[in-house]
Amino acid sequence: MQNAPLSAPKPGEGALLWTLKIFSGVLILLILILHFLVNHYWAPNGLLSHAEVVAYYQNYPIVPFMEGFFLIFVVVHSLLGVRSIALDLRPAPRVLRGLDVLLLAIGLIASGYGIWLLIRVTGWGG
Amino acid sequence: MNEPKKLHSRGVLDWFDPRGRQVGGWGFIINRISAIGLTIYLYLHLVMLGKLAQGPEAFDAFIATAKQPLILFGELLVIIAGLYHGLNGIRIALTSFGVAVRYQRALLIAVVLLTAAGSLFFAIRMLSIH
Amino acid sequence: MSDEKWTVTFIVFRKKDEQPVRYDTFTLEVSPNEYVLDAVERIWAFHDRSLVFAHACHHSTCGACGMRVNGVERLTCITPIREVTRNGGTVRVEPLRNFPVVSDLAVDMSRLYQAMDVVHAQAVHPLDAAPLEGDGIRPPRQVPQPEEEGEFLRLADCIECGLCVSACPVAGTDPAYLGPAALAGAQLQSIARNPDLLSVVDCAEGVWRCHSAYECTAVCPSNVQPGWRIMDLRRQVVAQRIKALLGQR
Predict the structure, then answer these.
(1) Are C109 and C182 within 8 A, CB to CB?
(2) What is the dihedral of CA A98, A104, A110, A111, to 10 degrees?
């Protein structure tokens, strides 16, 4: 007896998005360790005043760079995670498209806002 | 007639109900709860950091408020969730690539023990600083 | 054979048509070495002939008698009462989750059979793809080779009992998820041998719906190890996608 033909592909999630989630997760872990050491261990007094944060970021320009990348990885990982949870609820294709636009907007706004904040605090924007 | 029949399921509740679940299932439940918690924290944290742009008074006043015991407790929860989610993430990444799948239970126990030890370390550190 | 007798109370899930769910209680004198299915049959035979449940072979081959016993998925024909309660204790018997209930303890397992069909699950597999009895989840290291061309085949372990679908935390919110048994059926064929499977499993309703709870592996009565197989299938999918990216298809 011959089985029915394989069903048409149903994308929505794939190897690329999943690999991105795993790799962003690993990068987050690596930078998180650095983030903790840099911001709460090596930094004088644990960066608990505005002046300290500004001085620290200006003295060590690598730190705001690291924070910027950290933010992007965390945003990507969290939004892919939210999308994955949403997919567990099997949204209708239209709802999924809307969600994709919303998540993309949140990601871009959060990343842009965070980078703007870093530029403001370091005073690089002039 | 073609209407899909309703599944015998409690839907989202079944994601979180630990009854009848085994070790791996508990791992999944805590992973999902910590994921949701950390996501909410991430965006709250970003909004709060906006105080940095509002100048020294706003940020320093915010830091002073953040030293309340309730907020410190919340921060500790974030650390616990972060530790668990990160360590369990390593477990899932490993097993997802076919590494040590056989030992996923043992790995999960190690994740929980390391999370407990790390949480204790950070709790003591927070108490000694504040 | 011991004559030991236990008094056990069975709390049984009941549902007919659109009527609300209720639980009926039956107190039975049983041997602790009897199986849960024996008790369910006795309830039907001597207490309530309207009780509906599915069973056939009584020796873990047909996969028909899967139920939730005290909240955990079990093949009731091989679950001794001694394992799930004590003398004077209770046993809660409910239908499998994540399938529609037909009546009482019987569920409609169409979604499982359809998913097995979608991945073209085979009844036999090459010897090196399926674990041998008691050999754990890894394929055996040394696979005997036939003297002539071809390869040895063995019967698939999966008895399509649906316990894995019932235990999966995600299968209840996504009715279209292929589920552990079907994904294991895909893994046993390997994507390299059957490239058409790639698009079937590399999608939202395929391998990526799994969140590594390993509940399927924990309840599988037949050593299929679906959790391990889904992870291996993911590895295969990623490897195939990378190969395609590098133009080595």
Answers:
(1) no
(2) 180
Nearest neighbour of C118 by CB, restricted to A7, A13, A90? A7
| Long-range contacts, stretch A98-101, CB < 8 angstroms, 24+ apart | none
Instruction: Specify the amino acid at residue B79.
Output: I
| Cα-to-chain-centroid distance, residue C21 | 24
- CA dist., res. C244 & res. C249, Å (int): 5
Tens-digit pLDDT string for chain A (126 aa): 344 444 454 668 888 898 899 999 999 999 988 877 877 777 766 677 888 888 888 888 888 899 899 999 999 999 999 999 999 999 999 999 999 999 999 999 999 999 999 998 887 766
- Between chains, do C231 and B101 touch, taking CB under 8 Å as contact? yes
Instruction: Please indicate whether, in this complex, the C-beta atoms of C208 and A18 are within 8 angstroms of each other.
Output: yes
Question: Under an 8 A CB cutoff, do C172 and B9 touch?
Answer: yes
Range of A49's domain?
16-122
Tell me what ipTM this predicted complex has. Answer: 0.88
- The domains located in chain C, with CATH, are 6-107 (3.10.20.30), 110-245 (1.10.1060.10)
Contact C137, B103 (CB under 8 A): no
Q: What is the pTM of this model?
A: 0.90
Please check whether residue A11 lies inside any domain of the structure.
no
